[in-house]
């Protein structure tokens, strides 16, 4: 959230009563002025950069001091929040009002215009519409003392940062031993989907439980869950891929990618979840275990996660040409926290 403060003055002789303060925003077609501190206010008296014709920028957004002042259909402005009533403003004693605002993600990396409009009591004045021709916005706004405009640059969205833990004591960093890498508590397998209120998120809320009782069942449908964590400060749309690697009777896994079994949807279909900021969420998938070869009683489930915008990518799976390449990646490579594995027996 951003806190936006608006200061309202009274330069008259008598107190101003029953005042309404409105604050609107819109994507700005005009960049924040160059060569000044970020978010510099529109300079008074037309001093400063040319900000364009007023008719192309300013339109009172359905503003009606006698009513609610809500935007009308087709206007380009949106309320930051409800209008703030001000009971009284004494001459020479400004009043400051605060609006709490979460900037829409669509504005990230661009510019936003904030427009404050103050309306005195009904019948004491109506804000003018933009003239069809006339001064630029940098002269119109200072001339209209009941309106104020500020153009601000909006920072880019923070980079996505998602991960899957590889062990109960793992925080997403590179692994030190292959044994721990096969015990990811963020990969869960059960024969029956949870029926408790709140579903899997409640049933599996203990993130420190290593769940040694988990098994794959055959025949029948297995319910698989992958817990994806989000370290960033914004919700991340994450895509999860889930594979099974055979663990042969000699306990050697078949890591040749051509032999991996894809459990998650085949592209272009995707297993997608929106992981809340600084939180985690379970991706769900079902799987019917194929008939194993004689003596093959286990699988290694491998989960990969990446952000949908690929700012936080998962490795390209074909790089795991063999077992050595897989362990080398998990131990040392950048992005290893986007991959987790779990060995499970078939019963």
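Sequence proposed for the structure above (347 residues):
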């Amino acid at each position: 959230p951003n806190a936006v403060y608006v200061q309202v003055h009274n330069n008259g002789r008598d107190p101003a009563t029953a005042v309404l303060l409105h604050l609107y925003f819109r994507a700005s077609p005009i960049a924040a002025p160059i060569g000044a501190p970020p978010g510099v206010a529109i300079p008074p008296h037309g001093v400063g950069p040319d900000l364009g014709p007023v008719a192309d920028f300013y339109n009172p957004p359905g503003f009606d001091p006698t009513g609610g002042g809500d935007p009308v259909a087709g206007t380009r402005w949106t309320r930051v929040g409800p209008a703030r009533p001000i009971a009284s403003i004494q001459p020479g004693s400004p009043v400051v009002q605060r609006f709490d605002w979460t900037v829409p993600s669509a504005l990230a990396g661009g510019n936003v215009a904030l427009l404050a409009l103050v309306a005195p009591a009904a019948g004491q004045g109506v804000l003018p519409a933009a003239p069809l021709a006339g001064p630029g916005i940098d002269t119109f706004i200072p001339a209209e003392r009941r309106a104020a405009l500020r153009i601000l640059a909006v920072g880019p969205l923070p980079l996505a940062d998602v991960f899957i833990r590889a062990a109960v004591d793992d925080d997403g960093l590179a692994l030190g031993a292959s044994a721990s890498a096969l015990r990811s508590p963020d990969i869960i397998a059960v024969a029956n989907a949870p029926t408790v209120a709140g579903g899997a998120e409640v049933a599996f809320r203990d993130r420190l439980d290593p769940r040694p009782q988990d098994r794959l069942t055959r025949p029948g449908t297995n319910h698989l869950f992958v817990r994806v964590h989000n370290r960033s400060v914004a919700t991340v749309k994450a895509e999860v891929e889930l594979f099974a690697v055979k663990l042969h009777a000699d306990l050697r896994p078949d890591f040749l990618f051509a032999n991996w079994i894809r459990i998650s949807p085949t592209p272009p279909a995707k297993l997608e979840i929106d992981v809340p900021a600084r939180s985690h969420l379970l991706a769900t998938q079902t799987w019917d275990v194929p008939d194993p070869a004689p003596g093959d009683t286990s699988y290694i489930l491998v989960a990969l996660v990446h952000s949908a915008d690929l700012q936080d990518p998962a490795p390209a799976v074909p790089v795991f040409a063999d077992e050595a390449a897989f362990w080398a990646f998990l131990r040392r490579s950048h992005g290893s926290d986007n991959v987790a594995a779990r060995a499970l027996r078939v019963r």
